[in-house]
Amino acid sequence: MLYYDDLELCNPLGKSAGTHKIGVFYYVIANLPPIYQSRLASIRLVAVVSRIIIDLYGIDIVLNHLTKDLCKLAQGTNVNINGVQHQIRGALISVNGDTPAANYIGGFKIGVGFAFQKCRTCECTFNDMQNKFSEKEFIQRTQERYDAQCKEMDMAQCNKMRDRLSIAYGINRRSAARDIPHFDVTRMIPEDIMHIIFEGVAVYEVKEALSKILTEGSFSLEQFNEHIENIEFGCKDKGCQPIPHSAFYSTEPSLKQSASGMIALLCFLPFILLIKLHCNSIYAHFISDLCEIVLLILSPIISLQTVEVLRALITSHLKLFKELFPEKNIIPKQHYMVHIPSAILKYGPLSNVWCMRFEGKHQFIKQLMSGSHNFKNVEKSISHHNAMYECSLNVCDIHPLFNNDFQVGPVCKVNNLEYVKNMIFEEFGTDKELIHSAYCTSWIINKGQKFITDKCEVLFGEINNMPEFGRLSAIWVVSIGTNNENCNEQIYFRLQMYETVGYHEDSKVYEVVEPVIAGGLQVVYIENLVINMALHVYKGQQNKMFIPLPYDIIDTIRLHK
Questions:
Q1: Helix (H, G, I), strand (E, B) or coil at 111
Q2: What percent of the chain has pLDDT above 70?
Q3: Which of 9, 18, 84, 190 maximizes the CB count within 10 A of its CB?
């Protein structure tokens, strides 16, 4: 997977803006499991070019070099692995980036505002965008139509005619990416959910809907902000907690939230509006519908049936937007949503190919130059430092790609080893003689996710198609084996169980209660968790307890069975 973006190293203002702007290309090996693809050590730098050079000569000068390398890779290259020769072949499966970057790579209009056809996936016009909300209603772009349109532009009798064709087709040029083996510029540049949803659609729709709710007088802006400030976000969301809002009435299109902050806000917004503030406005339910779409899109496991449900939800949601906000236009990013289900069918869950972690790599590039006052040939400096860094990764005892798989906090021996043995034996039938020692710890990191005792909940099972939750009360590091020398350390959670009352469809939360019989404990092996993520309980009216989830878990639970 290839990623392209522009990066400003110095963030200057005024006339100096863009002086040290560079274009960076990263790649990730798609064969890696998704949990490793998102780690910065797996994101490698392909090329770095001055933006001035790109503006002067075009991005195709870079793509031509990449095409040559990808042609060689498609033919196969020999690699020596432990003294054995292996022939490895590879191909580019996707190009990722924000809308301007992705369109630039594909040869489409960078800014679609003046283009007649405004989408790189289909031949959508502005009028069609306002009235059609299903992908099947649009003519899909194909490689053949793309080639024919580019040829027609090249054969235009004058520049004015070429410009008219360019605007009509939404294409600037025939991209050099068209020559990459097995690559289709009309089908293999997926929409990025980070940019179109969390920095586009969600911002646009939430701002408009909240503005209407505030106008109705259901609650005040101060009350809304108070609930956002008072929510105790868990350890996973503390770094991306959404900020309070100053106003929703201005013409400023932004809510001034980061993409991660917008994700956290959407997770809690139906809960705040419908349970905390008791808002029963149709606009609150409109936001709830948007959050349902977001939860499905973020799901790491999604079935074919759920994809079709998502397709129907997006269509009905866009229709409802036009009904509730007839004075507002459907913006291009809203239209791009209709192509998300098809992209999921091609690439699987789109959280595996979004730009969130690629943009995290930008901070590493900036840090390389943060202590440098020499910006002569900065591209060479970045390439050299990055190459040295990537080489250093291979001399570590544990490659950084895997060093965050398993970390344990300070440990101490359990007070009652026999109690631990009995609990594990009763749940798993493990022979007590095989358990040699057990330690307890206050926190653990498993595959990048942190769990803290007495501060989080986990989803450990299901009963009658409803998830089972428990509060993490103890973490045990247990040595199991035939003798002390051949022991295997395993992690077990002791949970204080909850009873799941049900799912609140509108507020997107599960209601739980503490069991009637106190002391209901459950021991769970960490690898048997339904989702490897710390969850948190939030209280509503009458001290009712609710657990919001970061994504839809219906298909995850089905697979867990």
A1: coil
A2: 93
A3: 190
Q: What is the DSSP letter of 146?
A: H
How many other C-beta atoms lie within 10 A of the C-beta of residue 357? 18
The runs of H, that is alpha helices, within 231-375 are 259-270, 282-298, 304-324, 332-336, 340-347, 356-370
Element (H, E) at 169: helix 159-169
Tokens representing 212 are 């209407």
The token pair that represents 389 in the structure block: 């860094």
User: Helices marked H in 332-481 — which ranges?
Assistant: 332-336, 340-347, 356-370, 378-393, 417-428
> Cα 344 from chain centroid?
13
pLDDT value, residue 26: 96
The angle at the Cα of 91, spanning 89 to 92, to the nearest 5 degrees, equals 155
Delineate the domains of the chain, giving CATH numbers in brackets: 1-95+357-403 (no CATH), 108-174 (no CATH), 193-351 (no CATH), 406-560 (2.30.30)
* Cα angle, residue 180 at apex, residues 197 and 27 outer, rounded to 5°: 50
Q: How far is the CA of 487 from the CAs of 173, 481, 482, 483, in angstroms?
A: 62, 4, 7, 6
Put simply, whether the predicted model's pTM sits higher than 0.85 gets the answer yes
The pLDDT value recorded for residue 252 is 56
If you average pLDDT over residues 382-402, what whole number do you get? 84
User: At which residue do the structure tokens 């350390």 appear?
Assistant: 489
